[in-house]
Design goal:
With 201 residues, the protein is α+β, with helices and mostly antiparallel strands. It has 2 domains: 2-73, Glutaredoxin, CATH 3.40.30; 86-194, Glutathione S-transferase Yfyf (Class Pi), Chain A, domain 2 (Up-down Bundle). It has 7 helices and 4 strands. It has a 4-stranded mixed beta sheet with strand order 2-1-3-4, covered by helices on one side. α1 (10-22) links the parallel β1 (2-5) and β2. α3 packs parallel to α5 (152-167). It is globular. The model has no long low-confidence stretch (mean pLDDT 96). The structure holds glutathione.
């Protein structure tokens, strides 16, 4: 398998954490891809022009982190990261959806900062930030329902909180969310999370 990635992408991190958790990281060829470079050939694998994109051993290409993680989950016989059925399945997928939403807004905020200052849209920036804050508040109130184990939802949450700390260190999300902070402290200590800690270039 080959994975097209950029080093700080939290969506890519969802995939690499998953690969570590299911024990398949060793066999993956990592292809660093600068999606902002107009000369990038990412479109030959993902016409949308985004990473992650996974090239499977049979040549099929999968895109969208949630879909890639679901595909990877089909490749192993261990405990599934996407529970097959019942409330556990919907809890994991709902949490993944919430955290992918946080990540869409967080990545959008970063992209906005790359525009010339006079072209940045403050209203959109505030709306995205407020959406992230509200979702973190909801998760603080639901922390009792959070699994300690890795699944599609908790991996997405770990990556969303890690990305928040990387990109918005001054916003101190932990301040008024002590339960979520305690959950993250433990989850971030997993070998899969430690092995994939992002660093700014
Ligand atoms: N929904 C996608 C989002 C992927 C995404 O936004 N990737 C960013 C990097 S963090 C990207 O490649 N952006 C390129 C662009 O927007 O042009 C997923 O879950 O994989």
């Amino acid at each position: 398998m080959k994975l097209r990635y950029s080093p700080t992408s939290p969506f890519v991190r969802k995939v690499t954490v998953t690969l570590h958790e299911i024990g398949l990281i060793e066999g993956v060829e990592m292809i660093v891809t600068n999606v902002s470079d107009p000369a990038s050939d990412i479109a030959k694998d993902n016409p949308v022009g985004k990473v992650p994109a996974l090239i499977a051993d049979d040549g099929a290409v999968y895109m969208e982190s949630a879909m890639i993680c679901e595909y990877l989950d089909s490749l192993h016989d261990g405990p599934k990261l996407i529970p097959a059925e019942g409330p556990a399945r919907w809890r994991a997928l709902r949490l993944q959806a919430l955290c992918d939403g946080i990540l869409d807004s967080a990545v959008g905020r970063i992209q906005e900062t790359k525009r010339p200052e006079e072209k940045q849209w403050d209203g959109l920036h505030k709306r995205r930030r407020t959406g992230i804050e509200r979702t973190l508040d909801l998760l603080e109130s639901e922390v009792g329902d959070l699994d300690d184990e890795a699944n599609a939802g908790t991996i997405a949450l770990g990556c969303a909180l890690g990305y928040h700390e990387l990109r918005f260190p001054d916003e101190a999300w932990r301040g008024n969310r002590p339960k979520l902070a305690a959950w993250y402290e433990k989850f971030a200590a997993r070998p899969s999370m430690r092995a994939t800690e992002p660093k700014l270039p």
